Amino acid sequence: MKKLLLSILAVMVFTVGFTQTKEELESQKAEVQAEADKFQAKADSIQGIIDALPGWRIGAFGTIGGSLSQFNNWYAQGSPNNEAGNIGFTVNGYANKIEDKYFWKNALTLNLNWIKFDDKDDPNDDDSFRAATDVFNLSSLYGYRVSDSWAVSAFGEYRTTLIDNFNDPGYLDLGVGMTWTPNADLTVVIHPLNYNFVFSSGDTVFDSSLGAKIVADYTKTIGNLNIKSNFSTFQSYEDSNLSNWTWTNSLGYTIWENIGVGFDFALRDNKQEALNYIQNLDPALGGNPNETFDSVDNDLQTFWTFGLSYKF
Fold it and tell me: CA 220, 225, 230, 231 torsion: positive or negative?
């Protein structure tokens, strides 16, 4: 009986001791975490000061390796409707020079993928590796500051595909106006005077025109998360059918070292591309030259890509 009581007492002492030790460890963890948060806040504050200093800021992140993708009505490439696995890469790079009186911001978006894929519009399609994702966008913005957040600016942007139909079409926007930079992450370009050059070969529906250009770009790193969102629109003064807009988004989350997961998606509206596709490229119709701007079904263009990401 005595041995039993001693055993019970030992178990109780061990349990109490374990409970106290756990509570003490949780208390110590909370203290350490509070210290870590304090130092992280200080580090973020110092980084903000560094970001505000004059000079160049250069960086890039992207998605590489295998991925899953789906395209619907992406008229700029030869097969706008497909679903498959693929291999390729996405790069979002920037090189920005920030000075007290002026800034010069340059950005590159490149998304190339090759796949064995099921072309939904062609029951006899080739199952070998072919180009699927094909996006190229290069922009340059110069601004001379007239206040802390406003600048007189000039902007150039070039968009095309590289693998399929290079520069056919290709879009070059050149314009002047004002740029709003409320912080280091957001840039909004407002250019009421902009000319949209459209390059294409043969007899096509593409036309250049004068209009207004608006671009909103947000680039941010929050801990392990890299974010880039860009909205670009051209509104033609000559004909609304010549207007277009594109919204691209990239998310990359670092899990280990510089490796993580990435997700890219985009939306586009371009009636010229829709009409050109119906007239010249649609394999189901074999081309329909009688289609017009008034009759064409201008579906929303979309794409998304998910896969491994790498922070350069």
Answer: negative
